[in-house]
Each structure stands twice: as structure tokens, then as C-alpha cells.
Amino acid sequence: MSAQPPDTVLRAEKLSKTYRMGEVSVHALRDVDLTLHRGELLVLLGASGSGKSTLLNILGGLDTASSGRLFYGDQELTGASDHALTNYRRLHIGFVFQFYNLVSSLTARENVALVTDIASNPMPPAEALALVGLSDRLHHFPSQLSGGEQQRVAIARAIAKRPDVLLCDEPTGALDAATGKRVLAVLDQVNQETGTTTAIITHNAAIGGMGDTIIRMSSGEITERISNRARGNVEQIEW
Known about the structure:
By secondary structure, the chain is an alpha/beta fold. It has helices spanning 52-59, 82-92, 108-116, 125-131, 147-159, 177-194, and strands at residues 8-21, 24-37, 41-45, 67-72, 75-76, 93-96, 165-169, 197-202, 213-218, 221-227. It is built from 6 helices and 10 strands, in the order E-E-E-H-E-E-H-E-H-H-H-E-H-E-E-E.
């Protein structure tokens, strides 16, 4: 394959994923083509079961495709070993999930330090927490934080290793509207200030307006691609 354009971070070609459930084959992805560009904020929309999380997991090296090809820059990840995928996740990918997965016995700073201790060029934990507006919560434990604050700690943990790509799976799914908007504003800010390529998957169509690109999925296929000339204001999202 020829070299990728210089701003291409991830490129998927004809990705398919089939699961076997007894005698039944479940087609979670069907021939998905997708390119993520440096600094882009992509919003993936679709109902539960549309293939969003499967695609995100493959892009992040948490799962592998049944067929198709995946490239990180000019490096092909198709058929990569478990060791190679572990290094790819460790060095290049940050994850934010619906549930915060913080260690309850550690402070916010210590939770972020779990990642910085294994990264090659990390942000100091205090710097990452400042970026998400939590400078005054460094020494608080998860039980002392609201749901939105815990999610912002999770975002700080994800970005502290300076990933090339930040993958967010329903990051506001456990939050009320006002808190969810604050978390989305943080993701928007992180994307613009650090240039981290960001993908957010959600079933909430209203969130699409904040992205540079909107992808709609249904039954494992991409059904629509929209490019926004200008991002919408997160505060104006109608939840």
C-alpha cells in the first residue's frame, strides 16, 4: 500500500467483524472504511447494536477484525501480535469509557499517575488534572468526587500519556444533561488545546454537532458521513 497522507492517523479498510453464537453468525461490522485525521474530532452515532463499540475497540487495539485492514499511520496493525497491540495501546491510544474505572483507594492524582508511570513522555498528573479543571481536587478520592468530576479524572488519566488518539465510548452515558455537557466541553477543549485526534461514540444525535465529522452507523455499516464546516457550541446541545 502507498504511504498515507501526512495527517492520517488511523485508516480502516473494509473492516468486518463476525461473532459466532452457537450456530448463528452475528455480523457486528460490515466492510467499514474510515479515516481519522490528525487533530480531528469525530462523532460516531448509532443505536445500541449498530457496531459503534466494536469499531472503536478494533481501532483501539482491544479487538481484532475478522477481515479487512487497519493502519496506524504507515504501520499496518492487521494480524499484529498481542504484544504489538499492547504496545500500540500503551503508547498511542487513550480510552474513556461510560464508567470511570477509577481505583477507589487512590486519590485523583494517584489515579492519573497509574498511567504516567508507564508512559514514555507523560504529562505530570497535576498538569493533566489542571487541563480538565480539577486542580483543586488532586488529593480527593473518587468517593469525594461527583460523577462528572470522576469522569474528568478518567479523561485526565487518558490524556496524561499524550496519546495520538483518544477514543471515548459513551463518555456521558452515566451522567445527567448538565454534567454531560461539562464533560463534552472538556473533551472539546482537550482536542483543541492538545491536538489529540478524538472519537466520541454515542447514541445521542444532539452531540453530533460538536464534531468536525459525524458518522452514522446501523447494522454494522456506515450509513452517513457529514463534515461540519464549523463545530457547534457544546453548551447549545439540546439533550
